[in-house]
Amino acid sequence: MANNFLPLNEALGLQGGLVSSYEMLSVTLGCLATLVSLVVWFGQRKIQKESNDLQRATSELAKKQLELLLREEKGKNTARLSFDIYKDGKTYRFRITNISDVDAKNVSLQLLLNKPEDSPLIPSDYDSKFPLPKLQPGCSANLIAAIHLGSPTAYNAVISWKNPDGSISNEETYAAL
Predict the structure, then answer these.
(1) pLDDT (tens digit, 9 = 90+) per residue, 97-131?
(2) Among the four given CATH numbers 3.50.50.60, 2.60.40.1400, 3.40.190.10, 2.40.50.100, the one describing domain 81-176
(3) Which of 56, 99, 51 shows the shortest CA–CA distance to 78?
(4) pTM for this one?
Protein backbone atom coordinates (compact mmCIF):
# COMPACT_ATOMS: atom_id res chain seq x y z
CA MET A 1 0.00 0.00 0.00
CA ALA A 2 2.92 2.30 0.58
CA ASN A 3 3.86 1.99 -3.07
CA ASN A 4 0.48 3.33 -4.17
CA PHE A 5 1.00 6.66 -2.34
CA LEU A 6 4.61 7.19 -3.23
CA PRO A 7 4.06 8.96 -6.59
CA LEU A 8 1.52 11.27 -4.97
CA ASN A 9 3.91 12.08 -2.17
CA GLU A 10 6.58 12.97 -4.71
CA ALA A 11 4.10 15.00 -6.78
CA LEU A 12 3.08 17.02 -3.73
CA GLY A 13 6.65 17.46 -2.65
CA LEU A 14 6.19 15.47 0.53
CA GLN A 15 9.07 13.57 1.96
CA GLY A 16 8.75 10.60 4.01
CA GLY A 17 5.31 9.63 5.34
CA LEU A 18 2.32 8.53 3.37
CA VAL A 19 -0.72 10.64 2.46
CA SER A 20 -3.65 9.26 4.35
CA SER A 21 -7.13 8.89 2.91
CA TYR A 22 -8.28 11.84 5.08
CA GLU A 23 -5.61 14.07 3.61
CA MET A 24 -6.61 12.94 0.10
CA LEU A 25 -10.22 13.74 0.95
CA SER A 26 -9.16 17.19 2.23
CA VAL A 27 -7.21 17.93 -0.97
CA THR A 28 -10.12 16.72 -3.13
CA LEU A 29 -12.65 18.83 -1.18
CA GLY A 30 -10.33 21.84 -1.38
CA CYS A 31 -10.10 21.46 -5.17
CA LEU A 32 -13.85 21.01 -5.42
CA ALA A 33 -14.42 24.11 -3.26
CA THR A 34 -12.07 26.09 -5.52
CA LEU A 35 -13.96 24.90 -8.59
CA VAL A 36 -17.33 25.82 -7.05
CA SER A 37 -16.06 29.27 -6.07
CA LEU A 38 -14.81 29.90 -9.65
CA VAL A 39 -18.17 28.88 -11.11
CA VAL A 40 -19.99 31.14 -8.66
CA TRP A 41 -17.59 34.02 -9.37
CA PHE A 42 -18.20 33.79 -13.12
CA GLY A 43 -21.95 33.59 -12.49
CA GLN A 44 -21.78 36.68 -10.28
CA ARG A 45 -19.90 38.57 -13.00
CA LYS A 46 -22.68 37.73 -15.46
CA ILE A 47 -25.37 38.81 -12.98
CA GLN A 48 -23.46 42.05 -12.25
CA LYS A 49 -23.26 42.81 -15.99
CA GLU A 50 -27.00 42.23 -16.37
CA SER A 51 -27.63 44.43 -13.33
CA ASN A 52 -25.53 47.23 -14.84
CA ASP A 53 -27.40 46.92 -18.14
CA LEU A 54 -30.71 47.09 -16.29
CA GLN A 55 -29.52 50.14 -14.35
CA ARG A 56 -28.59 51.87 -17.62
CA ALA A 57 -32.00 51.03 -19.11
CA THR A 58 -33.74 52.35 -15.99
CA SER A 59 -31.70 55.55 -16.18
CA GLU A 60 -32.65 56.05 -19.85
CA LEU A 61 -36.31 55.43 -19.02
CA ALA A 62 -36.16 58.00 -16.21
CA LYS A 63 -34.66 60.55 -18.62
CA LYS A 64 -37.44 59.92 -21.15
CA GLN A 65 -40.11 60.19 -18.45
CA LEU A 66 -38.65 63.50 -17.31
CA GLU A 67 -38.61 64.70 -20.92
CA LEU A 68 -42.27 63.71 -21.31
CA LEU A 69 -43.21 65.49 -18.10
CA LEU A 70 -41.41 68.64 -19.22
CA ARG A 71 -43.08 68.47 -22.64
CA GLU A 72 -46.45 67.91 -20.98
CA GLU A 73 -45.86 70.87 -18.65
CA LYS A 74 -44.94 73.02 -21.64
CA GLY A 75 -48.05 71.74 -23.44
CA LYS A 76 -50.22 73.10 -20.65
CA ASN A 77 -49.21 76.60 -21.74
CA THR A 78 -49.70 75.93 -25.44
CA ALA A 79 -52.99 76.02 -27.29
CA ARG A 80 -53.94 73.31 -29.79
CA LEU A 81 -56.37 74.03 -32.58
CA SER A 82 -58.21 71.70 -34.96
CA PHE A 83 -59.51 72.49 -38.45
CA ASP A 84 -62.35 70.75 -40.28
CA ILE A 85 -65.15 71.15 -42.81
CA TYR A 86 -68.72 70.24 -41.96
CA LYS A 87 -72.13 70.55 -43.60
CA ASP A 88 -74.65 72.76 -41.84
CA GLY A 89 -77.93 72.11 -43.64
CA LYS A 90 -77.18 73.04 -47.24
CA THR A 91 -74.10 75.12 -46.44
CA TYR A 92 -70.54 73.94 -45.90
CA ARG A 93 -68.50 75.61 -43.19
CA PHE A 94 -64.87 75.63 -42.10
CA ARG A 95 -64.46 75.25 -38.33
CA ILE A 96 -61.45 76.05 -36.14
CA THR A 97 -61.79 74.64 -32.62
CA ASN A 98 -59.57 75.19 -29.58
CA ILE A 99 -59.03 71.65 -28.24
CA SER A 100 -56.62 72.67 -25.46
CA ASP A 101 -57.07 74.00 -21.94
CA VAL A 102 -55.70 77.49 -22.64
CA ASP A 103 -56.77 80.48 -24.73
CA ALA A 104 -55.47 81.04 -28.25
CA LYS A 105 -55.11 84.70 -29.22
CA ASN A 106 -54.89 86.44 -32.59
CA VAL A 107 -55.99 83.30 -34.46
CA SER A 108 -55.68 83.51 -38.22
CA LEU A 109 -56.36 81.08 -41.07
CA GLN A 110 -54.70 80.91 -44.47
CA LEU A 111 -55.83 78.36 -47.06
CA LEU A 112 -53.03 76.99 -49.21
CA LEU A 113 -54.50 77.02 -52.71
CA ASN A 114 -53.05 76.41 -56.17
CA LYS A 115 -55.16 79.26 -57.55
CA PRO A 116 -56.05 82.02 -55.05
CA GLU A 117 -59.11 82.93 -57.13
CA ASP A 118 -60.56 79.47 -56.34
CA SER A 119 -60.75 80.26 -52.61
CA PRO A 120 -63.98 78.97 -51.06
CA LEU A 121 -63.78 81.65 -48.36
CA ILE A 122 -66.22 84.54 -48.60
CA PRO A 123 -64.03 87.65 -48.12
CA SER A 124 -66.59 89.66 -46.13
CA ASP A 125 -67.21 86.71 -43.74
CA TYR A 126 -63.45 86.13 -43.30
CA ASP A 127 -62.60 89.83 -42.82
CA SER A 128 -65.33 90.28 -40.20
CA LYS A 129 -64.08 87.36 -38.05
CA PHE A 130 -60.32 87.08 -38.54
CA PRO A 131 -57.91 87.48 -36.96
CA LEU A 132 -59.85 86.23 -33.94
CA PRO A 133 -58.81 88.21 -30.86
CA LYS A 134 -59.34 85.22 -28.55
CA LEU A 135 -60.49 81.60 -28.97
CA GLN A 136 -61.27 80.07 -25.59
CA PRO A 137 -60.88 76.35 -24.78
CA GLY A 138 -63.67 74.27 -26.30
CA CYS A 139 -64.90 77.15 -28.49
CA SER A 140 -65.06 77.22 -32.28
CA ALA A 141 -65.01 79.81 -35.03
CA ASN A 142 -66.93 79.11 -38.25
CA LEU A 143 -66.53 80.46 -41.76
CA ILE A 144 -68.88 79.90 -44.67
CA ALA A 145 -67.26 77.73 -47.35
CA ALA A 146 -68.54 78.45 -50.87
CA ILE A 147 -68.06 74.93 -52.20
CA HIS A 148 -69.44 73.87 -55.57
CA LEU A 149 -69.18 70.76 -57.75
CA GLY A 150 -65.78 71.77 -59.14
CA SER A 151 -64.26 72.49 -55.71
CA PRO A 152 -61.53 70.31 -54.23
CA THR A 153 -62.58 67.71 -51.66
CA ALA A 154 -59.75 68.63 -49.26
CA TYR A 155 -58.06 71.88 -48.28
CA ASN A 156 -54.62 72.50 -46.79
CA ALA A 157 -54.39 75.41 -44.41
CA VAL A 158 -52.03 77.16 -42.01
CA ILE A 159 -53.49 78.20 -38.67
CA SER A 160 -51.51 80.75 -36.65
CA TRP A 161 -52.09 81.88 -33.07
CA LYS A 162 -50.42 83.34 -30.03
CA ASN A 163 -50.11 81.19 -26.90
CA PRO A 164 -50.57 82.49 -23.33
CA ASP A 165 -46.79 82.31 -22.81
CA GLY A 166 -46.33 84.74 -25.72
CA SER A 167 -44.99 82.22 -28.23
CA ILE A 168 -46.42 82.12 -31.75
CA SER A 169 -47.60 78.80 -33.17
CA ASN A 170 -48.09 77.98 -36.84
CA GLU A 171 -49.63 74.66 -37.73
CA GLU A 172 -50.14 73.30 -41.20
CA THR A 173 -53.22 71.10 -41.35
CA TYR A 174 -55.91 69.95 -43.74
CA ALA A 175 -59.64 69.34 -43.80
CA ALA A 176 -61.56 67.04 -46.10
CA LEU A 177 -65.23 66.77 -47.01
Answers:
(1) 999 989 999 999 999 998 888 899 999 999 999 99
(2) 2.60.40.1400
(3) 99
(4) 0.61
